[in-house]
Amino acid sequence: MSSGAAADVAFVAFALVAVAAGYRVFRTDSMVRATFLLLASFLAVGAILVLLAAEYLGTALLFMMTVEMVVMALFMVMFMMNPAGLNPMAMVHQPRLAAGAGVAAGVALAGVAVVADFPDAPVAGSAGAVAALGAELLGPSMLVFESAGITLLATMVCAVVLSASRGRYGPTHDGSVAPPLDPGGDHRPTDDLVEPGGGGHGHHGSHS
Amino acid sequence: MTAARQLHPVPAVALVGAVLGIGSYLVAVTRAGVTARVAGQRLGLAAITVAPLRRARRLLGQQVTTTERPDSATWVLAPAAYAGLAALALSVVPLGPGTAVADVDTGIVVFGAAEVLAVVAFYLHGWSPNSPLALAAGYRHVAAALSYALLSMFVLIAAALPAQSLGIGAIVDSQAGLWNVLRQPLGLPLLLVVALGVTASGPLDLLDGTDLAGGGGAEDSGVQRLAWEGARAVMLVAFAAGAAAVFLGGWHGPLLPGWAWMALKTAAVAGLLVVVQVQGARVSAERFVAVSWTVLLPLAFLDLLAAGVVAL
Amino acid sequence: MTLATVLVAAAALVGIGLWGALGQQSFVMLLMGIELMVNGIILAAGGLWAFAAGGVPTGQVLVIVAMLVMAVEMAVGFALVVAVYRARGADTTEGIGSLRG
Lengths: 208, 312, 101
What we know:
The complex is a heterotrimer.
Chain A: H1 5-25, H2 31-51, H3 55-79, H4 95-115, H5 129-137, H6 142-163, E1 166-167, E2 170-171, H7 172-175
Antiparallel strand pairs in A: 1-2
Helix pairs in contact in A: 1-2, 2-3
Chain B: E1 5-6, H1 9-39, H2 45-61, H3 72-91, E2 102-103, H4 107-127, H5 132-160, H6 168-173, H7 180-183, H8 187-198, H9 223-247, H10 258-279, H11 285-311
Antiparallel strand pairs in B: 1-2
Chain C: H1 3-23, H2 27-51, H3 57-88
Helix pairs in contact in C: 1-2, 2-3
């Protein structure tokens, strides 16, 4: 693990970036900027992990989070009404409960961090950490590794099933029907939407 | 396990800057020459060496126009981040025996991470101008980028297997007897496909494609345009250096000193890429995504499987 | 850079993530809150591994499991967002009220 004044300064800088960027995620109007502020927070945490002598974990976090955040930006633009933040917007509910819970959780955990008596066994150095991780994953933790693989496979199947164009709830062009006027009722008629299947309304019966 | 060998920061930054600066200029000259040759023009050596400088001077003097309500911060960030990532990728590549800016233990992962972070730069390049053609170009290139990112990961990990290390210096050392391009024949072609995508050029010229009136660069002008085009050339040099180190044996070679061989191999890869860039017809994003996931990715699996079996 | 400072930073991230996850109406922002919380957990696990566990490799495996959880949660979360939008036309938590009793 890096030690010395330079490492301390770097750690404080990265920690401040991570926390400030995390806070700005929920305060900024532009949704795309919010996504990349979250990416900045992850990059800062990855850098701290590298400072803590977990080199592979830090760089792998950088790698993973980048692609996740790009995909999240795509979804932001798809689903948010104000992706560029051209109008000020705040879509919050239960704001005081949420703020209270957040502050309480943060203070409680920070209290534990400061007060609790952790064992003192610093890691020796980063040389060999990657090899040790590899040997561990393919040795004693092989079960974790294999279940991770199967979990990811199940996730891929699940994501495709839920969102494929021949979806579980009917073909997706039916999904672009406007929501019902009263909850649980039939969808509004689709006369004004183009029906590729030809004539008639494409609604399915009442939803459960 | 190689420990991190590091140069002193000041000569390191200067070395990376010099390599990228000279390299990108040579790339621009080569591209001017190949383009002139393909177009049937008869330009002498003097003309093509001056052409990129002339273009740069013209762009520097050009007025910078802007669009309505662009995202100015990310518009400036995109080329800066792209060039910075190229510098990051080059810093983990050994340019000669024992001469890497930071030959870290996880060099291959850093190299891959730099290339994946470039996708963020592509998205921002398309998003920031607040212009429909730019956005469309950015989106279609992100779709292709998510496909080739996976390819690159498998190919680079397969190259790391014989070295039993993730550091690029160790990978170069493991090629002292036999280059990876011969040991893993599928690796370099796939990595060159990735290189075309990372520099958004040639068959994967989806980001700044002329079919979308310049795509992400449609609204760029003046210094902005020069910065983005310069960043693309810089990334080409960095990626070519990485490909030469990982697949062509890096600085190994008889007679000449290590850095000369590295320069020659980088120039060979970069030259090949420039020729493909100028001559290659653009592939549509849907077709590339389909081919990438159904053909190229299984080939990458095969490459990794073969490397794994050999390593056992 | 001591264990206490690393854990305080992680606690701050978890707190901010919880605030966002509870307070945001939009599904995608809610997912970002959860991501921030797992980010804090990863930082805490990394800090504990480096300072209190002596670099035992199982600690790194814990961090990898946390990253796996993040990936799975995001993939399934976005698939659900798409499915809910197609079935109900809702992209905020106020738009789906089927569990309201």
